[in-house]
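Record format v2
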Amino acid sequence: MSREPRVTVWNEFRHEQANPKVAEIYPRGIHEALAGPLRAVGLEVATATLDEPEHGLDRRRLDATDVLVWWGHRAHDEVADEIVQRVRQRVLDGMGLVALHSAHFSKIFKTLMGTGCDLKWREAGERERLWVVDPTHPIVAGLPEQIVIEHEEMYGEHFDIPPPDELFLVSWFRGGEVFRSGCTWRRGQGRIAYLRPGHETYPTYHNAQIQMLILNAVRWAAPVGAATPRRGNQQPQEELG
Amino acid sequence: MSREPRVTVWNEFRHEQANPKVAEIYPRGIHEALAGPLRAVGLEVATATLDEPEHGLDRRRLDATDVLVWWGHRAHDEVADEIVQRVRQRVLDGMGLVALHSAHFSKIFKTLMGTGCDLKWREAGERERLWVVDPTHPIVAGLPEQIVIEHEEMYGEHFDIPPPDELFLVSWFRGGEVFRSGCTWRRGQGRIAYLRPGHETYPTYHNAQIQMLILNAVRWAAPVGAATPRRGNQQPQEELG
Amino acid sequence: MSREPRVTVWNEFRHEQANPKVAEIYPRGIHEALAGPLRAVGLEVATATLDEPEHGLDRRRLDATDVLVWWGHRAHDEVADEIVQRVRQRVLDGMGLVALHSAHFSKIFKTLMGTGCDLKWREAGERERLWVVDPTHPIVAGLPEQIVIEHEEMYGEHFDIPPPDELFLVSWFRGGEVFRSGCTWRRGQGRIAYLRPGHETYPTYHNAQIQMLILNAVRWAAPVGAATPRRGNQQPQEELG
Amino acid sequence: MSREPRVTVWNEFRHEQANPKVAEIYPRGIHEALAGPLRAVGLEVATATLDEPEHGLDRRRLDATDVLVWWGHRAHDEVADEIVQRVRQRVLDGMGLVALHSAHFSKIFKTLMGTGCDLKWREAGERERLWVVDPTHPIVAGLPEQIVIEHEEMYGEHFDIPPPDELFLVSWFRGGEVFRSGCTWRRGQGRIAYLRPGHETYPTYHNAQIQMLILNAVRWAAPVGAATPRRGNQQPQEELG
């Protein structure tokens, strides 16, 4: 709680190289766009991408990570199962995870949720309004009661997730859908947040309010420092008499 | 679980007498419009209204009620505190409560929630889309994934309620707002459901899907038949040795 | 909600054949001990065991199952991954799952939870007291505020599960531990309940209160009959204008 | 999140003056015993007691309070309803509340919960074991998986509270009961924590682990700084067209 979390931003980093439109919006990659605002407030932030060895997520990197931010979309299947299991174990052991936008369909998110994680979607650049439904939640600190994004991909319900432990944002879309856009869950000793916005063809991660949302989520997801529970066969605490 | 709950539908019954537009939609009162579809499937349904003695909620009536359905709007303040306390105690003792639409601001709902229960609103007859966000919930049994109401009053977030135990419907409104429209809470031994739709100037309670929603909520809110917990000073279960 | 669910009781069925003590308590197998009380109230109950072809869980069997009851312990690893995936998909599609005792460590339970599902344990035949902490829950219908089991295996916290959607039973053990013994979760369209008691070397499933708990859980977990959500690419509901 | 919360510790302060045994344990009052460890880490802490004018809770004091810690027992009824309403409004407006032990029966806690808040109890100085059931919760930061208190009053289920938003501690008592001892709820913009331990005749608040629990709860309950939601009649965000 006292010191700032050490962050690794993971990005698939494929759209930026394949699609000039995306490259124009995020010339240094989505990971750098995400890392910048976190670094600007003093956080220690590393990046990792799909095409690095071990996707940039070797044990040393994960051991030095308090919170992992995840963005992926078209290449979820290329993430090696072995790495997914490694990341999953780190989350269960206490590393925070902030899953962004299309990361809803990443292997790591799906395996931690236990559900299909599918949803409705539409790429029509329509207006999104994210309404705060829990004004006590630290992830909406410093933000207004509504965030408006002029052009975004639509995600609609039913979002096939377990009922979130906390729901703090619900999106309205111009075309008629709603979506649970800000959610949290606990898994093992790890804290997980999902934030909906961030389709690669819109400059969403340059929006200062979305940047603040992500910063808040990173701080929220940081390990709290509780004891690791003992498990397995136990002697009685009291005489069984 | 086996037998059907005995229901009392409580209605303020003032708009119908003061506003010809409402009287035209609900000539026998909102309470009769609500009671009809419940009776049609065989439930035993009584009605009670504000201007009856004790608002129609004497002890005998409440003792014979498994689930109370509540509709009120302009005269919340005229409900006597003594009756509110009586209803509250019955809920804590196991009677179900289904609060409809503007009942969000009723004394009985507010005292059971512990919050202000205020919200945004607008009477513009705009389109509402109620999306199912929990397809495992019994209250949406037999319903499609979306209920569309062409003309309704808008209710918008933040709805000042405790985070619901279960959230199964989220509304989209044409004018840009969202709302947690189907929620449940537990209080004492009682089960409470809130269903948003039903402004008095629209024929919402003649909508078969809304009628089914209310029927499902009534069945869901019925007492489950668990033991009444003992409380107060207790002898030990085990020797303290 | 109207008709009774069709049940399949799955049992590993190994202890009964390898350990005379268990065979004496459950001469026809734990599955028959579980099925009996369900049949006695009129439910249609099939059984399936590990050593049958496809573990007795071929598609036809699963398609004809509304609620699957699962008991396994020493041979979790022998359950084929393909069958686990098949059962998981049926749960996400709406089949209920009631996981009993050591099923906490079954592949199907772990994959639906997304966590490690480990816990503390001790086989000392000590007293367990299951206290009702939610007297509004249908699974404790007809039961007293406390169920006492004279001899059981101890399970202790931390139980590595996602925070349950509903917690209705907490166990006290003579040796000093507590445990969240009655829990529910939603996954996809499926409803999942976990009930702690039932170590194979004690006659727990002959206890009428535990039998009622399981019957209640089966009814609670039955599919509710809500619409299957549509997902994927969608046309707008409203003109995007 | 950045600066430490300003705290007011409220204490009934009657037992200490009437019962020499309590006076011996808490010679300067329970409020000073609670305030000390908070001040020791640098928090700004005021105290207030029942017999001060306005119970020490005038508007100026409340306006300067980020988190209110509450201890009361024998004189709940002497707290003026007007002051309770004032405190309640401050909680709904964002002030945190940490309710300790017998504060479960205080007017302020009961009005915010909406339930009876009764429980089982026994004064037998028996052993309590508080087990962590959520190792991701900030309120158990820095604490072991179990806190043992050699002599405490017993509180047992059913504790008549709304299902907590978060449950992080469950107590085991020597005499056979369990209790949900660490819980949180949200009300309006305010965050509320309940911590069970602290009967006046035992030196529980001199226990360093309990002191840390309270410090963590105070920090957790601090206002997050989200926007105050607007409510009431609203113009549409979008053209209703």
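Chain A has seven helices and ten strands.
The helical segments of chain A are 15-18, 20-25, 30-40, 59-63, 81-92, 107-113, 208-221.
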